[in-house]
Design goal:
With about 90 residues, the protein is mainly alpha-helical. Helices cover about 65% and strands about 0% of the residues. Helix 4 packs across helix 5 (about 55-60).
């Protein structure tokens, strides 16, 4: 159902999309952190993609990326001053 509302192009449907996103955001914000994580993890692939797209902070909370940077590469633990000494 969310996909149908979000793929519409007419002006009226854009307003409905904004209202839907706002309502879902408020609902998830009112939940306790544990319940929000449990709910997001139990969503279907389409539901999780919707949350990832419109509420990246809630998605990151439910599916943390440990040991990786935003670009997806593994972060270095070395300090820059040590790297400079080896050059």
């Amino acid at each position: 159902m969310c996909r149908l509302l979000l793929n519409r192009e007419s002006r009226g449907d854009t307003l409905a999309e904004k209202q839907l996103v706002e309502a879902i955001g408020k609902k998830y914000a009112r939940m306790s952190r544990a319940r929000r994580i449990r709910t997001i993890r139990s969503l279907s692939a389409d539901g999780a993609e919707f949350i990832r797209r419109f509420f990246p902070e809630f998605y990151a909370e439910a599916f943390p990326q440990t040991g990786r940077s935003a670009s997806g590469s593994i972060e270095s633990d070395s300090r820059p001053e040590l790297d400079a000494k080896t050059r």
